[in-house]
Protein backbone atom coordinates (compact mmCIF):
# COMPACT_ATOMS: atom_id res chain seq x y z
CA UNK A 1 0.00 0.00 0.00
CA UNK A 2 1.40 3.37 -0.97
CA UNK A 3 1.19 6.35 1.30
CA UNK A 4 -1.60 7.89 -0.78
CA UNK A 5 -4.05 4.96 -0.63
CA UNK A 6 -6.67 4.11 1.95
CA UNK A 7 -7.34 0.62 3.29
CA UNK A 8 -10.11 -0.92 1.17
CA UNK A 9 -12.26 -1.85 4.17
CA UNK A 10 -12.10 1.70 5.51
CA UNK A 11 -12.94 3.17 2.12
CA UNK A 12 -15.85 0.75 1.65
CA UNK A 13 -17.29 1.55 5.08
CA UNK A 14 -16.96 5.28 4.40
CA UNK A 15 -18.60 4.99 0.96
CA UNK A 16 -21.58 3.23 2.58
CA UNK A 17 -22.25 6.38 4.62
CA UNK A 18 -22.46 8.71 1.62
CA UNK A 19 -25.72 10.04 0.30
CA UNK A 20 -26.42 9.74 -3.43
CA UNK A 21 -24.95 13.15 -4.34
CA UNK A 22 -21.75 12.67 -2.37
CA UNK A 23 -21.26 9.16 -3.75
CA UNK A 24 -21.68 10.44 -7.30
CA UNK A 25 -19.22 13.27 -6.56
CA UNK A 26 -16.69 10.76 -5.19
CA UNK A 27 -17.03 8.30 -8.07
CA UNK A 28 -16.76 11.03 -10.71
CA UNK A 29 -13.66 12.54 -9.10
CA UNK A 30 -11.99 9.14 -8.76
CA UNK A 31 -12.64 8.33 -12.42
CA UNK A 32 -11.42 11.73 -13.60
CA UNK A 33 -8.25 11.52 -11.51
CA UNK A 34 -7.58 7.95 -12.60
CA UNK A 35 -8.04 8.79 -16.27
CA UNK A 36 -6.53 12.28 -16.48
CA UNK A 37 -3.61 11.78 -14.09
CA UNK A 38 -3.03 8.16 -15.06
CA UNK A 39 -3.01 7.07 -11.43
CA UNK A 40 -3.91 3.61 -10.18
CA UNK A 41 -7.54 3.41 -9.02
CA UNK A 42 -6.59 3.13 -5.33
CA UNK A 43 -4.54 6.34 -5.49
CA UNK A 44 -7.30 8.11 -7.42
CA UNK A 45 -9.85 7.06 -4.81
CA UNK A 46 -7.63 8.34 -2.00
CA UNK A 47 -7.47 11.74 -3.67
CA UNK A 48 -11.19 11.67 -4.44
CA UNK A 49 -11.82 10.89 -0.76
CA UNK A 50 -10.13 14.14 0.28
CA UNK A 51 -12.08 16.11 -2.33
CA UNK A 52 -15.36 14.51 -1.25
CA UNK A 53 -14.78 15.30 2.42
CA UNK A 54 -14.20 18.95 1.45
CA UNK A 55 -17.35 18.85 -0.72
CA UNK A 56 -19.39 17.51 2.20
CA UNK A 57 -18.05 20.25 4.49
CA UNK A 58 -19.05 22.93 1.97
CA UNK A 59 -22.51 21.38 1.61
CA UNK A 60 -22.96 21.23 5.37
CA UNK A 61 -21.91 24.85 5.73
CA UNK A 62 -24.32 25.94 3.00
CA UNK A 63 -27.17 23.98 4.58
CA UNK A 64 -26.54 25.59 7.97
CA UNK A 65 -26.45 29.04 6.38
CA UNK A 66 -29.68 28.36 4.45
CA UNK A 67 -31.39 27.18 7.66
CA UNK A 68 -30.28 30.29 9.55
CA UNK A 69 -31.51 32.56 6.78
CA UNK A 70 -34.81 30.71 6.66
CA UNK A 71 -35.27 31.08 10.42
CA UNK A 72 -34.44 34.79 10.24
CA UNK A 73 -36.98 35.29 7.45
CA UNK A 74 -39.69 33.61 9.55
CA UNK A 75 -38.92 35.72 12.63
CA UNK A 76 -41.55 38.41 13.15
CA UNK A 77 -40.43 41.28 15.39
CA UNK A 78 -42.74 42.20 18.29
Total number of strands = 0
Describe the largest sheet. Answer: none
N/C terminus separation: 63 Å
Mean pLDDT, to the nearest integer, reads 87
What's the SSE pattern?
HHH
Low-confidence stretches: none
* Residue share in β-strands: under 5%
Question: Given the structure, what is the number of helices?
Answer: 3
Using the CA coordinates, give the radius of gyration. 17 Å
Shape from CA axes? Answer: elongated
The percent of residues in helical segments reads over 70%
Structural class: mainly alpha
Overview of the molecule:
There is one protein chain. The protein is 77% helix and 0% strand. By secondary structure, it is mainly α. Helix 2 (20-37) runs antiparallel to helix 3 (41-74). The radius of gyration is 17 Å and the shape is elongated.
Question: Keyphrases for this structure?
Answer:
3 helices, elongated
Give a brief description.
The protein is mainly α. 77% of the residues lie in helices and 0% in strands.
List the helices and strands and how they pair.
Elements: H1 8-15, H2 20-37, H3 41-74
Helix pairs in contact: 2-3
Amino acid sequence: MSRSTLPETLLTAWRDTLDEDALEFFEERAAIIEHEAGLPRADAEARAYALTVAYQQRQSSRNRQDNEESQEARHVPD
